[in-house]
Structure formats: structure tokens, C-alpha cells
């Protein structure tokens, strides 16, 4: 269980359900930058991340994209389309080399029907993502650029940080542009805010 980050779906499943889920589907490997899921796509497969990290992005009217969320090993992507049969609501891109177990929607739904406990964990996971999206929108809708970035960094630390001798490290590859997208501010504002958040030198 220690291999799965705290709070992820796999960490919250029972050992029997974890083992059962890991036996399903097929292993698919992606390189950095590969698209796992494309927004608007009709497919309803479910991807369990067993290694790596992905970015969830959405298209905007000017033709660009906005970073919506991050997902790490132990989490599912694509499960909403499997549950409601609707097209993909966002694009998922590998932020580093990533490995998944890819399940058809039929296999995934059968797994949930056969384990009531697993179904409840998945339901809580989906609800948690919805709450996270709501919290993210609130955090990035007001305050100075520094406050918005501080809130974003705090959320990243709570979700993805690991202890290192120097303190805590957010173990997710993020550029200044990614941080700007998550915080809802400009790249230049990120750089200024990071300078203001750094402790003064000796």
C-alpha cells in the first residue's frame, strides 16, 4: 500500500480490490507529451495510473488550453465517461513517462458491480475531484497574484509533496507556465510572486 500516494484511489481500496483492479485491462506505456485522452473523444476506456504523472487540460475559445488538474499514480482518469457514457470532457497528457492499466468501460463497470466497497471508493474519488475543482475555482477567483500562487502551492504540497532533507518537494514536473495556469495568473506574475515568497537570503 505504501507505493500508492496517500489519498489516491488505490491507497483507499482494500488490498483485495487493489489486486483485483491491477489484474484487469492491459498495460499501456506513454512517453512525456503523449496524449492519453483527447477532449471530445467518444471512447469510454478507464485508465488507472500505475506510474508517472499526467496533466488534465481543457480547450479555451482562443484555441489555447488551460491546465485543470494533475493526476499521479494510484488515480483514475477517464472514469466519468465510463460512468455516464458521454464524450471526454478534457484532454489528458503525460507529464513524464507514465504507465497505465487500461480497462474497457464494460470491464470497469463489472468490477464496480462485483465489489460494493470498491464502488463506494470510486464514488468518493469522483466526488473528491469535484470538490477539488470547486475549491480550485474559488482559490483562483480572488486575491493578489501572490495569494493565488500561495494557495496553489499549498494545495500541491498537500497532494503531491514528499519529504526530502531540505524540507518538502512537490514531486510533479511543473513549469512556470503550468503554475500560472493553475493559479489563474500570468507567467510574469508567477515569477514576481515566487520572488516575494522566497525567504530572504543570509
Description:
The protein is globular. It is of the alpha+beta class and 202 residues long. α4 packs across α5, α6 packs across α7 and α7 packs across α8. Helices cover 43% and strands 24% of the residues. The mean pLDDT is 88. The strands form three sheets. The chain has a four-stranded antiparallel β-sheet. The chain has a four-stranded antiparallel β-sheet with strand order 2-7-4-5. It folds into two domains: 105 residues, Jelly Rolls, CATH 2.60.120; 53 residues, Winged helix-like DNA-binding domain superfamily/Winged helix DNA-binding domain (Arc Repressor Mutant, subunit A), CATH 1.10.10. It starts with 8 loop residues before the first helix and ends in a 5-residue tail after the last helix. The chain contains eight helices and ten strands.
Please write out the topology.
Blueprint (H helix, E strand, L loop, with lengths): L8 H4 L2 H8 L3 E5 L4 E3 L8 E6 L1 E7 L5 E8 L3 E2 L1 H6 L6 E4 L3 E6 L1 H10 L1 H24 L5 H16 E4 L2 E4 L5 H8 L3 H11 L5
Antiparallel strand pairs: 1-8, 2-7, 3-6, 3-8, 4-5, 4-7, 9-10
Helix pairs in contact: 4-5, 6-7, 6-8, 7-8
